Amino acid sequence: MIGAAVSGGFWLAVVDGIDRFQGRSTLRTWVLSILIRQAQRTGRRERRTIPFSVAWRGEHGPTLAQDRFRPANAAEYPRGWVSPLPRWDLLPDNQRQARELRGVLDDAISDLPRRQQQVVMARDVWGCGSSEVCTMLGLSANYQRVLLHRARAHLRTVLETYLSVAAS
Amino acid sequence: MTSPSIACQQLVEMVTDYLEGCLTAEDMAAVQRHLQACADCSGYLTQMRRVITLTGAVFDDRTGMLPAGMLDGLTQAFTKRLPSAW
User: Fold this and answer.
1) Which of B5, B9, B80 to mutate to test the interface with A (most CBs of A within 10 A)?
2) Global pTM?
């Protein structure tokens, strides 16, 4: 999804729109805004349906299944992990595994709700700073962090599931 | 949110604020104490950092090298914008 966004269509959008750039943001921020919108349009064309679990995911509530934690009134370790966190079997120099994981993440980013997708792309794919993203997307700092947290937590869960299936 | 001690279920929801440096001094200290004592939460934080690193590598062009075809696309786009008299 993200690789496809950086194509002739993106550059045409920049060239066609450059006359409308009014300097309210930096040129870098403006170009990145176009890139994010292009990437989202590409992602929507590629995915005609959204997984049910994603469609109903809101922006409130815990980011991890609550049955992974002991109850608050547990005698020992209340609200602690029920089971040890599964360790990830990552091979540092394995290019094939790295490529696979990037593909898994790219698909997972496409499944995110729009705002979460925009924020995680801007922050973690493109490496933009927090205040730059807030300006680009018109978000408060707190809301941007909420969206980023929910997006990253989902990506972590996706990787955890993928790696546990791969290991079995 | 301030607390003398933090449960695992709370910490997992605080990791982004922790990584962003947006916790109060009290909460930061509580999180750090918890991470030192809890291998699973420490592992969770490591996994989140790993996700951030992997996500950053999703776009191959982070090195600044133009992907194949991009320069051609850019050249064509600018060529179309040139006045016909050129």
Assistant:
1) B9
2) 0.75
